[in-house]
Amino acid sequence: MSHDEFPTDTPAVVTCGLPYANGELHIGHLRTYVGGDVFARALDRLGQQTAFVSGSDMHGTPVAVNAEQAGVSPETFALDWHETYAETFPRFNVAFDNYGHTHDETNTAVTRELVRELDERGHVYEKEIMVAYDPVDDQFLPDRYVEGTCPYCGAHARGDECDEGCQRHLEPGEIEDPVSTISGNPAEYHERTHKFFAVSEFADYLSGFLDRLEGTSNAQNQPREWIEDGLKDWCITRDMEWGIDYPGAEGESVDLVLYVWVDAPIEYISSTKQYTDRVGADVFDWEAAWKEGASEAHPEGGEIIHVIGRDIIQHHTIFWPAMLEATDHTEPRAVMASGFVTLGGKGFSTSRDRAVWAEEYLDEGFHPDPLRYYLATNGGFQQDVDFSWEKFRDRVNTELVGTVGNFCYRSLLFAYRNADDLPAVETTSGEVTDRIDEAITAFEAAVNDYSIRAVGDATVDLARFGNEYIQHNEPWKLVDEDPEAAAQVIHDCVAIAKAIAVLFEPIAPETCERLWAQIGASGSVHDVTVSAALEPPAGDLAEPTELFEKVPDERVEELNAKLDARVAAAETDEDGDAEDDMADGDDDGTETEPDDDIPSMTDIDPISDDRISFDQFQELDIRVGRIETAEGIEGADDLVKLRVDLGVETRTIVAGLKRLHDVETLPETKVIVLANMEKAELFGVESNGMVLAAGDEADLLTTHEDTAPGTTVR
């Protein structure tokens, strides 16, 4: 691995976090896979040797639980979903070089070999631990068969992860007040012997690794807290039948399977190996990429880039690098952790059918490339993205149709109709060449900054220039007045369209292939590098067609109506139960005499009779933040521009605090932030969140203890 700018002379592997083979994909899931595909294609455009791989995560208790409910074996259940994913990703132009799964022969063999090596090198030991046990059903309960209370933050948590609170990985036996998710019975803790990977031995290495790690800041910063708190060794076995058997030493009998997060990341290696087995090591050498010292040309291994959701940062920046270091494999060069996708400002809910399903999007007749553009360029990669049909319509109609599509269609149509009657031009003007070169530079910088959004922006900005260029030069007037000038303008516009086809290919691959054919370029746009964007156009123009279709307002209304009807139908039986659970308060009727500095009861608004469900409350993403900087906004009497550290990122938030607080004293103040508040522009400043305060005096809500920024408020 190098830390040189891309492209490097070492092979690169881009991976995406493995989807659980456990249910339908919705557009929230697609963000990571589209992001990975865009980045892999962008590396290809730079001339970087790249393999883009992933696979289905077949093991783990969610698969076993749902297979049992479906009345089929876990293998049958998982394979069905694996095949669905393998068919779905290409329909969104997500083109993995290899898409395997964790239960195939390759991954089973590679996993057993790597774990055996960990064991033989002394990084694995046995330990007696307390494992949840259902005394009524007489069975041990691995991770996801248990729910209870997180011992760190007190939130409701799964047996292996505090998914609703602090996001920590939880070891067997840590969860408090355990309950069986199978029977609902209270669970007991019984002693069992399990295998542990000594992650704590790698604390110093991991600190250095995070200093070297590239990618998104949330992946670089979030794991440091876990190291500072002291790393715990990692239980890598489970009491269940579905999974890869622990590869004990010769003659050793181990009646355990490997924890799913052991074999899941190893699939990255296995999938790359399968790619090499299919195309040959001369095309891509998996060992040169993954094994230190395997190649004389690349002794430090290749460039490993993981594209993941932010909920699995810990696995990819703590456990996985430690495993790789312990077995002389290449450490990741970068981890790109995406934010979540919300739907109309609220979280996706599969149980309430509150989602835009991947299959549904295509069935509604939409092309995949506009969704790819929306997911890739709507905010920074680590920021949350909100999807609504209104926002989708606006970005498609304004940016894809109105900017990119409008320029390409109008310029190519004019060229198609007039080029044969004008003098031949072989070179692109200096002004246009310089502007295309600027777009290439911006594209290259975006890749090296791991900015998916900037990859798209480089092309859209070039298209804006193209629209200004053709409008300013008005070739339709020059055809008769100055044919040579008209010919140059037409040539320049086709050159810009060609550059757009090259640079926009990672975002909209199918559309750009169509644009490439309209220009009359030879070969496939998927096979060229960014240098082709500067090559003068050649070949016969085809009659162009519109690249993108407008989304009519009535379609948005129709789609919203369908979504609302689905959600209402799914919620009919659930709302009453949820609200009943929240309705039983502990009001003992006691009244107290108010102090002088407390508003009297007549000054306080009555409590609303309108109740919300627990699920609705869960959709509020409330975080602890720390104000880094504060400054008044010119022209606004009340508003202050804050930069607030939310742990995973720093946001700009506008708050009405200027008259009520000394602005200079606000930095370092802990505040509570509604993080998934819709963005708003106030006095020219985009506000990305809301700071919570009490009363007319804006008494800022804060924390009693020293809670870390980014901690979720429950």
Report what the structure shows:
This protein is α/β, with parallel strands linked by helices. It folds into 3 domains: 1-123 and 198-338, HUPs (Rossmann fold), CATH 3.40.50.620; 374-534, Isoleucyl-tRNA Synthetase, Domain 1, CATH 1.10.730.10; 620-700, Nucleic acid-binding proteins (OB fold (Dihydrolipoamide Acetyltransferase, E2P), Beta Barrel), CATH 2.40.50.140. Helices cover 40% and strands 16% of the residues. The strands form 8 sheets. It has a 6-stranded parallel beta sheet with strand order 3-2-1-14-15-10, with helices on both faces. Strands 20-19-18-21-24 form a 5-stranded antiparallel beta sheet, with no helix packed on it. Strands 5-4-9-11 form a 4-stranded antiparallel beta sheet. The protein is globular and about 90 Å long. Residues 573-606 have low confidence and may be disordered. Its cofactor is Zn(2+).
